[in-house]
Amino acid sequence: DGPDVLAAGADLKASFCLLRGPYAYPGPHFGDLATEASYVRFSAEADRMGALFGVKATLVAHDLHPGYLSTRYARALGRPLLGIQHHHAHIASVCAEHGLRGPVLGVAFDGTGYGPDGTVWGGEFLRVDGARCDRLASLRPVALAGGDAASRDAWKCALSHLRDALGPGPAAATEALARLAACVPADAPGAPGSGQAAALLAALDAGLGTHATTSAGRLFDAASALLGLCASSRYEAEAAILLEDAARDAISRGRVSSAGPLPVSEAGGRLVADPRALLLRLADVGAAREPDAVQTAALDFHEALARTVADVVARLARGTAFDAVALSGGVFQNRILLARCRGYLEDAGFRVFFNRDVPPNDGGVALGQAWIARASTAAASGT
Known about the structure:
With 383 residues, this protein is α/β, with parallel strands linked by helices. The chain contains twelve helices and 14 strands. It has helices at 36-52, 69-76, 86-98, 154-166, 170-183, 196-206, 216-226, 238-252, 276-288, 291-317, 335-347, 365-381; strands spanning 5-7, 17-20, 23-26, 59-63, 81-84, 104-114, 120-129, 132-139, 142-145, 210-213, 264-267, 270-273, 324-328, 351-354. A seven-stranded mixed sheet has the order 11-12-8-7-6-13-14, sandwiched between helices. Helix 11 links the parallel strand 13 (324-328) and strand 14. The longest helix is centred in the C-terminal third of the chain and has 27 residues, at 291-317.
């Protein structure tokens, strides 16, 4: 129990959530709030459902991203506000669904979320205990070029990751362009036009229009492009979907992956999992363009990530009381990854929880925000 709460959610797969007493009322799916029609419906439905269920919100929770329209909506209400980190909310949505109490170790894999350090998060290992969230590990941050278009153009993710994997210097830049051209031939659908890849690489080296990210979603996009599966998505997440399809084809043919976890080191006070060597191996396979090898490599990619999740969680749990692991974020809509992470974690003795009643993507963020808002008021009152 506690005060009534309105949680504004995120901007993509937008949905709000209302809390009254022990009940949570998630709103419907509104799509992308960037369209005026969606934003108007979002606001009107929040008012309608609030009146229907007698919710008189005294606290409004919102995403930390200052540019989100859902954040602007929350601020315009003129009520007390609570900003909540995006991936904290993802993990909290699992806690809310399953009634989890006490600290859990959350693995939040998605495309993008605003980090308090000003970078773009998306491959996170978090300790969540109610309103408190500590970042314990992540995927290796990489400078990503192309802005928001990189979520559509997988080749931009591939080139950014190749540049990171091959290191600085003009020889490495030339090699990155050559490897991309071998994996994504000029006649492939969505391939970069003449000079486009070189221009992007120049911008990347100059730090123009780039941002650091740990995004697991963009890592999937890079892998898909390097294997020659998708250079540019015609619909949301096409690159990642085709990568999962290729891995499923390998499984259906009886292939078994022997891929191990990514190398893990400590940097900046957290563990960091490094995909560089894996991506270079995928680029070698993609350049050869042998379908069976591509399918096996796609399966290896999934296996390596699942093994990495299990490895990092085990390292973080040493000497602690952790036994509950929550998996959330849009990347966990990938059934192969979810099943393998769950299996390896349960084999290691962890209790594994994931979203069932709300989506693991941003459609479930509002429920997590509401849960954190309630937990924050309970902590403030000492209950």
